[in-house]
Every structure is written in C-alpha cells, then in structure tokens.
C-alpha cells in the first residue's frame, strides 16, 4: 500500500504557548513513522519536554539502517526509552524543568502492518469504512474509572479530573509503554492526536471529517477548526495517515 500523511498543531484559544509537538515522515511509499507528544510541567518546561521527546525519538530513528526495522515493536520501545532518558535527565539537572514530562503516541507502519505505542492520554484511532476504533488506552484517572465501571465513556468526557494522567514519559527513570498492532486495508486511516482534540471533538466527528468531510488532505485542518470553534481550551495536534 502507498502511504500519505498530514499533520497540524495549534496553541488553541486559551493557552499562551503550544506545548504539543509532532513528527511525521513517509520514509518510502509503504513505510511511515509518526508521533504526537503533549508536554506538561509549567509554562516553559512542558514545551521543552515535548520537543525533547520528539527530537530524541527522531534521533533514535536515524540510527536505524535503511529499510524496515527487523523488530518494529522493539524499535518503538527503544525510541520511547531514548526520549524518556532525555526528558528525565533534563528534568533532574535543570531546576526550571523539574517535574516536567510528556505524553507520547507513536506509530510505525510498513505495508499492511501498523505498530503503535502510547504513554499518557494522547491517542491513536483507526478509521475505516466500518467505523472508528480508539486503538490506544489512556493512562488517566478517568480511564481507570471507566474500566472499573465507575464512569461511562460519556461521563468521562466531562469529568473534572479528565486531564489527570497516571503515566507520562520523563517522570521516572524508566518508562512503561503500551504497544498495539493492527493490520490495515486499503482505504484505512490512522489518526494520532493530543487530548486537546479528543476532549472537544467526538469520535464520530473525527470519522466524518476524515471519510466524508471533503478532501482528505484537509481533514486535520477541519478537525482543528471544530476544536477552535468550541473554544479549544488546550493545545490541539493531530497527525493523519492514509493508506491506499
């Protein structure tokens, strides 16, 4: 399959600084990498955490020999560990960055296989002709409550503690990431986003804009515009991959 990709980020309507960061690269017609990070830890530190995580992950990517990684999941883990080490070390040595961290959602796709990793509450969705699936699982207080049956997914969207995450990159010496795998078909899309999008734009709206809202290359912009029209209280980032 051939792969196309687009991305967009915005500070939103309330925040003074954009602490999100993203990266995407179609390395060949059928091999692509993408990630979204959402920083935390104060006005300056959150921005440093997300950018440092992206830069460290990309640097790990550059160390790979040309072609497809022999073990895509091991590569994602290694990239996350490199990013975690960089953020953790900066937080420990720079007083202005103490306590900073970041979420991370990343994908590596090769031919029909997609390998995904997440830490925190940035998400990956699989969008296809049969619907939309949230592939990743949030590491957050409200997600834990939903799993226990204490909250419904609808209640979780408006819960006052929905932004409290239980796991982040850079806050501990070693990171624990979740890994996922999906087999793709022509016409499928993968959407990576920060919670600034998923907190204000519903899954069904994402599905509609990607498949039916107009030209696919404008889908990220349309999703951002929806978030902005609703006040976008947080930074908004999304990365979209199309598989043909």
Provide mean pLDDT, rounded. Answer: 92
Report the span from N to C terminus: 5 Å
Radius of gyration: 17 Å
In one word, what is the shape?
Answer: globular
The topology string of helices and strands comes to: EEEHHEEEEEHHEEHHHE
Uncertain residue ranges = none
Q: How many helical elements?
A: 7
Report the sheet with the most strands, covering strand number, pairing sense and barrel closure.
6 strands, antiparallel
DSSP E strands, number: 11
Sheet/helix structural class: alpha+beta
Topology:
Layout: E1 3-10, E2 20-28, E3 31-40, H1 45-62, H2 72-93, E4 101-102, E5 104-110, E6 113-119, E7 123-128, E8 131-134, H3 141-148, H4 153-157, E9 178-183, E10 189-193, H5 195-198, H6 203-211, H7 219-229, E11 236-243
Antiparallel strand pairs: 1-11, 2-3, 3-4, 3-5, 5-6, 6-9, 7-8, 7-10, 10-11
Description:
The protein is of the alpha+beta class and 244 residues long. It starts with a strand and ends with a strand. The protein is built from 7 helices and 11 strands. Helix 1 (45-62) runs antiparallel to helix 2 (72-93) and helix 6 runs antiparallel to helix 7. The radius of gyration is 17 Å and the shape is globular. The strands form 2 sheets. Strands 2, 3, 4, 5, 6 and 9 form a 6-stranded antiparallel sheet that branches. The protein has a 5-stranded antiparallel sheet with strand order 1-11-10-7-8. Strand 7 (123-128) and strand 8 (131-134) form a beta hairpin. It has helices at 45-62, 72-93, 141-148, 153-157, 195-198, 203-211, 219-229; strands at 3-10, 20-28, 31-40, 101-102, 104-110, 113-119, 123-128, 131-134, 178-183, 189-193, 236-243. The longest helix has 22 residues, at 72-93.
